[in-house]
Amino acid sequence: AEYMGFVTCALFSDDGSLVVSGGADGFVRVWRTRTAEQIAAHSASALLGLDAPRPHAGDSGAPVTVVHELPVRGLLPMPGVADAFLVVMRGGVLVAMSAQGRTLAKFDAAKPGLEFVTAAVSPRGEWVFGIGDDMRLYAFENLSEGPVMRQVLEVSDKAVAGIAVHPHRNLVLTYGPDDRVLRLWEP
User: What is the rounded end-to-end Cα distance, in angstroms, of the chain?
Assistant: First the structure.
């Protein structure tokens, strides 16, 4: 199956048996690595509990345009949970989901109009960090009873392009195209 827009991101499952991809059409698709067979398509809008139609072919076999979908901006593995990943999409919510399409957790900044630009997950999955278009770092603790936003930090007065998490400490690095500096944070 093809995307109705361009592919924005992709990753392999932990064991390499699956490829998960996200697209501008608002769908996360799951493929078997060995056969390239698509085995699932999940609507990013549905992950948030919004009603959205599933992708399908029209009477002529051509893809039907899906409206009100949230483009998928990125996918990140969720450490410690088999075949789970974080979906970065338009809006102020990051969603952890399984390859089967089950929503595992929602990391909600609770700020109307916010758009997450990028995100990162700590090596053991205890923390999820999102960078908003407001140039703030949103730090969520990923607890078994549900995520809790612990801190919001203003990280730049310019655009932030990326984020990285230290492999052994709660240390976050941010950087941007206009900044010419790397910034370290201890949320």
Answer: 42
